[in-house]
Design brief:
The protein is of the alpha+beta class and 60 residues long. Helix content is 18%, strand content 32%. The chain has one domain. It has one helix at residues 49-59, and strands at 2-4, 23-27, 31-36, 44-48. Strands 1-4-3-2 form a 4-stranded antiparallel sheet. The radius of gyration is 11 Å and the shape is globular. The protein starts with a strand and ends with a helix. It comes from Haloechinothrix alba. InterPro entries: DUF397 (IPR007278). This is DUF397 domain-containing protein.
């Protein structure tokens, strides 16, 4: 994972989240960006799409 600045993107949150107590995700060409909804300017993690999908499979 790398940390980088995020510009204008289509950020999404889970429909199960309440208020600002969640993470937001956005898709890029080969990565998924993740940030804290309470601090959207505080930095962004970039995770390869394959790694993100493996993470989601683990949660299910």
């Amino acid at each position: 994972m790398t940390v980088h600045e995020a510009g204008r993107r289509d950020w999404r949150t889970s429909s199960y989240s309440a208020g600002n107590d969640c993470v937001e995700v956005a898709r890029q060409a080969t990565d998924v960006l993740v940030r804290d909804s309470k601090n959207p300017r505080g930095g962004t993690l970039s995770v390869r799409t394959a790694g993100w999908l493996a993470f989601l499979r683990t949660l299910r």
